TrEMBL record:
Pfam families tied to this protein: TetR_C_29, TetR_N
Keywords from the UniProt entry: DNA-binding
Species assigned in the record: Albimonas pacifica
Keyword DNA-binding attached: yes
InterPro entries documented for this protein: Homeodomain-like_sf, HTH-type_TetR-like_transc_reg, HTH_TetR, NicS_C, Tet_transcr_reg_TetR-rel_C_sf
Name this protein carries in UniProt: Transcriptional regulator, TetR family
TM stretches of this protein: none
GO MF entry, a single one: DNA binding
Residue ranges for the DNA-binding region feature of this UniProt entry: 45-64
Domain HTH tetR-type: 22-82
Length: 229
């Protein structure tokens, strides 16, 4: 691209920024999510992110302050999308055992489909969580899944089918742990043991087993005998 073409592209970007700033912000986040997931926080460069959009480095800095601010925004947006998808399941009207199983199934499927989200979380854990957004920025929106599990667990206790002594946070950990490992460790696991578990058939079996394991952990023995095969 010669200098004249660059000027034309810059003028077009400025016009779009003035007409639809939220769309421009979303484009930057999308490009940054892709590059951060591919190259990590340390490896990704603002110049590369700008090149994937019609934006300049200056515009990225205008929206996000600096590279760390952009990374934090990408993380927050990735978590927000997951929480919104969970809310869209509308589990409040389902029987508690079915609702819990549906949430486990969704988490397994969503993690498998959104590998960029898992990679972003892996990368931030490598950095010991040093770049996470402020606690109130993350905890508030992410508490929606805990409230959802509180509702499911409370209804299960009231129905006499869930055993007492558990917490929604523990249930969230149980669901997340297996679903996360399925993606985060796929490369090394399949290199050592083969890829049988990562075929469509293998993934369907694992998803079913994750749901059944969770229910066997939560249900009373009497309820488990009725609810599970």
């Amino acid at each position: 691209m010669d200098e004249a073409d660059e000027d034309i592209a810059a003028d077009g970007a400025r016009r779009r920024w003035k007409q639809d700033p939220e769309a421009v912000r979303a484009d930057i986040l999308g490009a940054a999510r892709k590059l951060f997931a591919q190259k990590g926080y340390s490896g990704a460069r603002i110049e590369e992110i700008a090149a994937l959009t019609a934006c300049s480095k200056r515009m990225i800095y205008y929206y996000f302050g600096d590279k760390e601010g952009l990374w934090r925004a990408v993380l927050a947006e990735a978590y927000r999308r997951t929480r919104e998808a969970e809310e869209a399941l509308d589990l409040h009207g389902l029987p508690p055992a079915e609702a819990l199983r549906r949430l486990a199934d969704f988490t397994f499927e969503n993690h498998a489909a959104r590998r960029d989200f898992i990679r972003l979380v892996m990368i931030e854990n490598v950095h010991e969580g040093a770049h996470m957004p402020q606690a109130d920025e993350m905890s508030g929106p992410n508490l929606s899944v805990i409230r959802l599990l509180e509702d499911i667990y409370r209804r299960g206790l009231a129905a006499g089918i869930f055993r007492p002594g558990l917490t929604p946070l523990e249930l969230h950990w149980q669901i997340s742990a297996l679903s996360y490992f399925n993606v985060a460790n796929q490369a090394t696991f399949s290199r050592i043991f083969g890829d049988a578990l990562f075929t469509p058939e293998g993934q369907a079996r694992l998803k079913r087993q994750v749901g059944e394991s969770l229910l066997r952990f939560v249900l009373t023995p009497e309820a488990a005998a009725r609810e599970l095969p």
